[in-house]
Amino acid sequence: MTLLIILLAVLALIALTTWGKVNAFLAFLLVTIPAGLALGLPPGQVLAAVQKGLGDTLGSVALVVVLGAMLGKLVAESGAAQQIAAVLVGMFGPKNIQWTMMTTGFIIGIPLFYNVGFLLVIPLIFSVVYQYRLPAVFVGLPMLAALSVLHGFLPPHPAPTALVVLFQAKVSTTFGYGLLVAVPAVIIAGPLYSRTLRGLVSRPLTGFVREPRPGAELPGRWNSFLSSLLPVLILAPVLSLQGALPTDGALAPTLALLADPGIVMLLSVGVATVSLGLRQGKSMRMVMETYGAAVQDVALLLLIIGGAGALKEVMLASGAGSAIGVGMQGTGLPPLVLGWLIAGLIRVCLGSATVAGLTAAGVILPTMAQTSVNPNLMVLAIGAGSLLFSHVNDSGFWLFKEYFNLSVRDTLRSWSAMETIVSVVGLLGVLLLDWILPLIS
């Protein structure tokens, strides 16, 4: 019955936003409250879950999304994105742009959380699209596939890091195996699959698209790269130090502060205000007007993300995630496949990759002592499952849809299909490693 209610809720969301043309935030509210009541929650608890889901989700992403939009808009308007795009295309050529974008996403995605990375690369993607008259999804999907895979598979991202601890795996081993699985998954879901989407019509948000400017008016190359990629340059050494130094050392509180995505983005916006704003001849008032316009660009998107968080919280409060996981334990499937499947089903039902991964781990963990499964591979199997079929209940789905200005149908065809390919290829890679490792040990 739980699965049927969740399925009906998802279908209602799709119907309201596509056929009914209802605003996505309103659609979430119209679906979430009846779904909570149908799942057995008292009315007061449903409203409390909606408020908690909205507050928790916006509390975790609002700062990053708003500051990321500010940085992205300034990077676009200053010409820094155009400068970076010109350098990359000049080095590798327009024919290899997909591979260039994928590699860039891979490098950026290792230290950066997904939302930060997404907002960081959007101006770069759209600059390449506009300058070289290329389809937006064709150019952007390889880079975003890399960001998504790293978010789901590899430490130091939140869910993989937590899974490593829960399963008593080794960070270095999981990271090494994860790279072996991640690379083919990104290649297949990114450059190869996106070639089938070359005809997909996308009209990116105008706030991140600018007419090409003369080279003399652009910021310098070093300034463009350093200002735009400062979040990477801050997080990479900070995370390295966190891994090398004791967690209770004197520097631990400072490093924890500097590793927070909101603080990283705030520092980056502060530096860019000077390097891409004031030093390029803009007045402080002009820079602040740019930031104000950026907030307007993402205000509705924030509400939609909050709506997705409300639905997720109602599902969690009703116990839907745990019920699904426990109900699948008696299937007799191999542990790695079962871990992937539980995470995948919870992901499809609840929308959150992190929640899916941690819930699946809680279900699988008691059975680990009875099996000889490699804990590092279980981390990767659950991580792959947590990326399965992102759709209308996932905030990442709406980030992609709104920024690329796609219909729900085309977002399902591009973003959701890419995430599913990543998930399935990830599982196959894990099973292949599980077969090979005993042979070479």
Automatic annotation (TrEMBL):
Keywords: Cell membrane, Membrane, Transmembrane, Transmembrane helix, Transport. GO terms for molecular function: gluconate transmembrane transporter activity. It holds the Pfam family GntP_permease. The chain crosses the membrane at residues 30-50, 57-76, 96-122, 134-154, 174-193, 225-245, 257-278, 290-311, 337-365, 377-400, 420-440. The keyword Membrane applies. It comes from the Bacteria. GO terms for cellular component: plasma membrane. It is found in: Cell membrane. It is a multi-pass membrane protein. Belongs to the GntP permease family. NCBIfam families: gntP (TIGR00791). This is Gluconate transporter. It comes from Hymenobacter roseosalivarius DSM 11622. The lineage of its organism: Bacteria, Pseudomonadati, Bacteroidota, Cytophagia, Cytophagales.
